[in-house]
Amino acid sequence: MKSFMRDAAAKAQRFFLEPASARPLAALRIGLALTLLGQAYLVRSEILELFSSSGYVQGALSQSFQVPGTPTVLMFASWLSHLSVSEDLAIYILGSAYVLSLVFVALGLFTRTSLVMAWFLHWTFMNSNDTTNYGADLFAQVFLFYLMLSPAGSAWSSDVHLGRIDSKPTSAARLSLRLMQFHLCIMYLASGIEKASGIQWWNGELLWRALNTPIYKQYDMSWMIDYPYLTQLGGWATLFFELGYIVFIWPRSTRRWWIMAMVGLHLGIAVFMGLGVFGVLMAMLTPALFAVSAEPQAVAIGAHRSSRYSWRDDAASTALRSEQAT
Amino acid sequence: MSTRSYSALILLGGLHLLLVILGASYTDLSAFGPVGEVINYYGEMTGSNKSYGFFAPGVGAQARTRFEMIDASGKSTQVSLENSRSHEADLRINNITSQMTPDSDEVDVEEVARDLRRSVAASLAGKVFGRFRTARSVIVHVDEFNPVDMPEYRLGQRPKWEEIYQATFIQEKAASEVPK
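Structure tokens for the assembled complex are given below, as produced in the milestone run.
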């Protein structure tokens, strides 16, 4: 019994703490920052309408949606007004700081500070007009938070090139990666369970309705009425891949199928429902966290491998290490 | 860092994921008094208190808002706040509008729903007054989109918009009539 416990503890320690490369974290960092920069570009002309006290959701009404004690754009604007800075200018200053922090995050320059700033400003903008938030904002907040606590700047970053940060594998990188992987598993499981409780996901109505609802409709999909099994199959496949994610994303033999399914699902949402930012952000999460190798070995093998995505899992990597040693 | 420190971090990470599970299962922690409030605040910071029911259990009601602007001469013009410069921006404006639909997440009491709807409509009307300076009154129409099931569609029924709310906002003088 004692040896079993020792074995289990050793395995858990390896699973959570074996030094890992920060490449998956860096892939997520760069992908997330670029997606959010794209989002900022798309809403740039509406920034005052979305966040000023004379915008779409005005004054006291916007406050009624806020969680007490959370930072908001108008709170900063009120502070800056003491320096004779107008509300509009304050919003532009915060928006510019957010964009600048995202550029630094993407480049991996002063990575930790930039990530803290990007997370805080993203949270501030989210709090400032809760009525306009949707899934993309939530996932960005979740993963900016993880990234700011992780050594996300220890790979593919200017900080490494400038010698400001060491790129050696760390336990912190492994632990951060595991937390984010588990979060994604919980998210897909919860999403799958909730979807499975609705009849629309089983009888094919969901896809039919979603693709023909004005706000999401991108193309004329009325032809689907002649292929009800297609919409039904789409619903079932989504349930299968979301509910199975927590199990099948881990084994090497099924991982690539789940990665492809998730990328396909989310890019499909981006193309056919017009949810571009959400679709791209979600499509990027699984490959970054499960397809980019975290194994330090990839660096040792040679530069041609270190910069590429690898499907190898821990076991395969260990075998490769043994080969190298012999 | 020592292994003990990392063990403590694993424990903290485990607690964080526990909160993620509780959030995903719609557990309300505010019932736990001040501790629950602190945890809720942490959830707001980290996103760990959120649920993931996108398009679950199904596609809900969709709403749109139409604005009818009437100037001093009584001329009525249909105007829109959505500018279609980007779908991302329009999506956010549509999210505001959806606060006025009966099954909005924010609404669970009829009276609250009525007040909220009126406040959101007033806020949006205010925006129209600001953008169209000749407006004397603005009528806010909220329509709900009623999708049609596949079997009904085959029988010839088609989805349609149905007005679920209307409110009129009047100002004594249009902004353009007020001397600067």
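Chain A has two domains: 20-133, 171-321. Chain A is about 70% helix and 0% strand. Further analysis is deferred to the final report.
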